[in-house]
Amino acid sequence: MPLFSSNHEKDGAAREAYLDLAAAADEFEQYANPHAVRIAAIADKLAEAFHMAPQDRKSLRTAARMHDLGEVAMEREYIQRAGSLTDEERIDLRRHPVIGEQEAARAGADRDVQLLVRWHHEWWNGPGYPDALSQNEIPLAARILRVADAYASLTDARPYRPAMTEDDARIQIIERAAIEFDPAVISVLLSLEDLEELRSFAKPDELVVAVPQTNDTGPELFSSFMK
Fold this sequence. Notes:
This protein is mainly α. It is about 55% helix and about 0% strand. Strands 1-2 form a two-stranded antiparallel ribbon. A hairpin with a 2-residue loop joins strand 1 and strand 2. It is globular and about 45 Å long.
């Protein structure tokens, strides 16, 4: 009994610490509403639909709360600034998953969590970062985290754009199926119902439809929900 209580208390303390880190990341990125815990809820619902093991779901929830610690550690002004990023800033920002992996390790997260933080910007078709993984090279949990992060980002306001409606966010996600996102994960996302965290924070007087940026080689590496 004492051992169980000790472990339970340790888990509770760790969860509180991770929630504090999530709140700090949300504040730094100037999300209008709680972001990291929202991603964790969406990602966990997706993981449940894929029948992921309880420990894997726990690691995914923790990674969702910590996924942008790298941006906080970098403390770059351009992350909070309204307006597009320069090419140099985009290259610099691509470092944040690796830095986030290091920060997750410092916070005491296990290796599974660290790797999910590292890989949350990998793309289904391969041009993501930092490791250019593709398709099933990317663990399912990281593919889930990618979709959950994208949807939550699109449907919340940022300093540089208003929130999208749920329908417009779904259109954006669908358009990037088999490019940025695992089509199977998108299919499950579209089937989810009655999940509070899927509701958009869009305001009627601030509606926006983002148009994916393209260049001569195809879709821009930074998605339409990025700067």
